[in-house]
Amino acid sequence: MEFSDIIEIIHPSLAETERKIDEFIKSDVPLVYEIAKYLLGGGGKRIRPSLVLLSSAACGLADGEDRIAAAAGIELFHAGTLFHDDVVDQAEFRRGNASSNMVWGNKPTVLVGDFMLARGLELIYSCGSLELLRVVSRASSRLAEGHVLEIMSERKMVEISEDFCFSVIDHKTAALIECSTETGALLANTSNGAVKALSHYGRNIGIAFQLIDDALDYCSEENKFGKKTGQDLAERKMTLPLYYSIENAPGDVKRKVIETLDKEDDLDSSEIAEITQIVAHYRGVDLTRQRAKEFVVEAKKSLDEITQSDYKESLGCLADYVAERNF
After folding, report:
1. Main-chain phi, psi angles of 97, to 5 degrees
2. Cα 224-227-229 angle, rounded to 5 deg
3. Could you give the count of Cα atoms lying within 13 Å of 235 in the half-sphere of its Cβ?
4. Residue 222, Cα to own-chain centre: how many angstroms?
């Protein structure tokens, strides 16, 4: 099933969310709106606002302005972190287009990222719930911690393990997706059991989503993936496809890969191609996809706590989509 089919049930609400997003990125400073619009208009499936809307509706709240404000707020918050990500990673592309920092430079990109974060929090605040602010603030701190963990790994300040790789994923990607589903449940004033169930669902599909993203970095077609493949490897990021491959490889292959990654010079195209072949040969991508499916199974189990509805059905389909996507 296509993503557009899965979220068709909330299409009118998503359209309202888009209008709210555009309203809240307008600024008296024209460059702020220009940069914000550039990123938000450059693609993206709007998975996080979709999860806010589906989760609240699955808990009985299928209309109301607070849903729209929260969904828009989460997406603006996410967009703000993407601006900061691109500066930290010195990224050249975002969703197939030149990244904002490449077009306008680091300083405007960071500042517009701050603007987006602030506007997102303003929308969350408008919902009138301190608990929502707590949930989003917690996700924000976990995101920041995830970036620091990743920097520590790049600078060899920690010993890389499977648990460490999952910790980075849990902080960097799963935190905000978990926040999205928990926000939807909280808006509906549902039971603590349902809030916990949807929070658990969100965390698990968040981990699965990033695992698939990491796998696609080694095997996707660039024009579909929306970013340059091999980018994680070029940036010396130890993601699970590479980690699993190294662990499964003979000692001499493992040493050669580590020596290549440890050298001071940038990796050239032949070195990236060679390591990519090693990842394919020692099934790093396959093993990562398998782990993603395990987390999707856990996510769908969480939905047993939620009353049956078309919205719950869409959440289940969305979990399957995350594990099966190829771009």
Report:
1. -110, 160
2. 90
3. 19
4. 18
Which one-letter amino acid corresponds to residue 177?
I
Mean pLDDT of 230-250: 90
The pLDDT value recorded for residue 222 is: 54
Q: What is the residue extent of each domain of the chain?
A: 11-324
Report whether pLDDT(187) > 60. Answer: yes
Distances (CA, A) of 79 to 1, 72, 182, 255, 306: 26, 10, 19, 39, 30
DSSP bridge pairs for 97: 94
Q: For the residues 235-252, what does the mean pLDDT come to?
A: 92
pLDDT score recorded for residue 263: 83
C-beta separation of 284 from 241 below 8 A: yes
Superfamily of domain 11-324: Farnesyl Diphosphate Synthase (1.10.600.10)
Query: What pTM was estimated for this model as a whole?
Result: 0.94
When pLDDT is cut at 50, 70 and 90, the band that residue 68 belongs to is very high
| pLDDT over 90 at 251, yes or no | yes
Rounded Cα–Cα distance for residues 165 and 151 (Å) = 12
Bridge partners, residue 98, by sequence: 93
Residue 100 pLDDT > 60: yes
